[in-house]
Give the backbone structure.
Amino acid sequence: MDNLGWVQELIEAPDLEALGTVFDARLQAYVGRGAPSDERLLAERCAVEHEIRRYLTRSQERGFAYQMRFPRMPGAWLDFVDQNKAAEGEIARLNMRRSYETGRKDATEVKEGLVLSPIPLAAVPSQAQTFDPIVMIDRLVQDAVARRMAELVPANVAPLAPAIAPPEAAVSKEPAKPEMHPASASDRMSVLLQEFLKPAGRKRQHKTKGRGEAEAIVQFAIDFLDNPRMNELTEEKWKLLDEALPDIPNRDNIPRKSAKTLFQRYKYAETHGWSDLVRVTTTTIKSRYWGGLNKFVDWAVEGKHYHGPRYTFECIDPENLAPLPRDAFDDEELLRLLKLPLFTGCKNRLHVWQPGGYFVQSHIYWGFLICILTGMRPGEVGQLKCADIRTDNQFFYFDLRPFDARGGRVALQDLRNLKTNAAGRVIPIHPLLIELGLLERMQDLMDKGEERLFPEWDVYVRKDGTERWSQPLSKSWQYLKKLLKLSRADLTLYSTRHLMADWLDSDGIAQRTRDRILGHASDVRGRYGRKGVLDPQIAAKIEALEPPVIKQMRVLLLAAKNRADAGELTVVKTY
């Protein structure tokens, strides 16, 4: 009984933070010792594992962020469970071996006439048939911790059902009916969601892409279905969830305090009606809701957390909105954007949208202009390196290939993070960008030993470890839409790519060339050939690409640049 000291620690813990301190220290100690080597140690660890699962469920229900308070705990928890699983398999293997050896010995003794008669079962003391020290340990642990957890649970919350059976059930005289996947053996969705979102190691990180985006809809399922165990999800419950998804409204016209989660938005619509609310698009339902849930369920099936069939979602309400196609900037909208203080003279480095006497060519300044004049994606701009600006001694271009194959193979971690395979390409740099000082910025940064073209451009890292490079420019665009009162629904940051597409179309440039410049997937032929070589004809067309609005852009932008060069505006570097 000396190994039950942790039970007393739990009994004396006054709150969730104190319990977390106990579990955090215990996990570190258990993991440090390695996998248990006998059944007694395994029984103790399984009891601890059971109580930690209860603790994680309680923390989730009460909004206690144990991960922030105990940062080492999630990783230690995974290692602890893995060690227990490994020990269970090893001990089971040893038991099978022991049974085999015992049977072989008995057979040998019978053959040699050494066994005269079997020992009657009644001759075995009854205490030996009923006493199991491991079951006793489990029972003591369960009773002691249940009393303590009952003190922590509010009166209106029903206690969790015990997961460890009493000794009477464990020594039933009748053989138990086999049950392959009992619902009580699976974890609750909230616990599994935390494991689903935990960052993977470097070698498995490629398998966790997009998990962070699924968190919101899985949390909705948890809230809507009252945090069920995974194996309690029947066909009827999946249908209820399927029918609820189209009834999640857009956050527009919902008070901020009632729009923090998808479930809050759903309940708000249920309570206040739909008179002032708008439903989400079918694209949101199919890609974010269905896709996120399917990603979670597939993970649960693969990890043997869920043994039911994968449900096929199908419900769409007739009032759900159709997806809105994006459109290009019109000339007036584009010029309004470029007349803002960031491009003509701002207050200072921090207040770039207020007029003043400073000229700040920040990552936001260059981000918008490169997107407009090249059609590049915002996330592609953020990843640019100084070495990506190249020349063939006639034209300058951005080299967006994942890596230069002529230089040999590179490590996966050094590849550029591109949206599609077709996104790897070379893009001629418009002369206006050169005139505004892009090459001088590149040279200045290289002289300082800086690799990135925009070192001040911070990448946003999701919970699943994936990176989103477009975040800084996207946030600026959302602010500018309100500042400029751009109410057109089909106008987005990606409209800069549609603007370039329009310019290419109006200049009569071939579809295949257009796709290569924009990084769109074309036919099979477009994926082969000398993709790494800049076509002089394409470069010449891009350099000559100057519709009337670009001429107006040139006047606006170069006027501010010339004032800065003349000392009329104070130049401020952001790197």
